[in-house]
Amino acid sequence: MRILISNDDGYLAPGLAALADALAPIADIVVVAPDSNRSGASNSLSLDRPLSVHKAANGFYFVNGTPTDCVHVALTGMLIERPDLVVSGINNGPNMGDDTLYSGTVAAATEGYLFGIPAIAFSQSQFGWANLDAAARVAREIVERQFDALQKPYLLNVNIPAIPYEQMQGVVATRLGKRHSAEPVIRALDPRGREIFWIGPAGAAKEGGPGTDFHAVEHGQVSITPLQVDLTHTTQLDALAKGLA
Question: In this predicted model, what pLDDT tens digit does every residue of 36-69 receive, in sequence order?
Fold first, then answer.
């Protein structure tokens, strides 16, 4: 099996190293990741400047671009052989509910999916890399499942509780929950006294009942949510057509 690995925390992130170490014994891996933290980059491509690829001492390639750039460059300009799977992570913090629209971790996996390759995004439920070894073990087990029953390509979003492996309560299929609106921006002053703004924290869970990713992780379960890219609001199509008639 050939696996392309990326992330949004950057090529020096502990989560990336843990994921690569976990998958190296079972696959031929290539790691192509951003040169710095690109959290929240979503599916953006860098179209205003050229991109450069460099190889780090640990064998990882790093790109001066977004997670989507990394996967795009790897698939269309670097790799001789097409990978069988694209994986992203392990992210420092959760990507649940509305997070998936902003997440660079999910975006890297999505880019692989858009090229017709099965893809999986891995995130921990809390920030700080606690019990990262357990998360990496879970990630390997999920990759080894191969999900032959799913139509290919598939796009899976995985959130792993940041707890010891022995305390995890299984793996469940979930749907995305929903968050409340994000907290307000944080106002501050730069060293020259000019007003600046920091993006505030994500909102708390608004819809996190049974069956959602929020509920699963809260109860110590690994959450796997199948994602799709089609944003069409199909239930409004008829009403819109009537309004345009």
Answer: 999 989 889 999 999 999 999 999 999 999 999 9
91 is in an annotated binding site: yes
Phi, psi of 23 (to 5 degrees): -95, -20
Has 133 been labeled as part of a binding site? Answer: no
Report field, pTM of the whole predicted structure over 0.85? yes
**One-letter identity of residue 173:** A
Reply yes or no on whether the pLDDT at 146 is more than 90: no
Could you tell me what percentage of the chain is helix, strand and coil, using 3-state DSSP and rounding each to the nearest 5? 30, 25, 45
The response to whether 238 counts as a known ligand-binding position is no
Is 9 marked within a binding site? Answer: yes
Of the candidates 145, 147, 125, the residue with the CA atom closest to the CA atom of residue 134: 125
pLDDT bucket at 229, cuts 50 / 70 / 90? very high
With contact defined as beta carbons under 8 Å apart, do 25 and 33 qualify? no
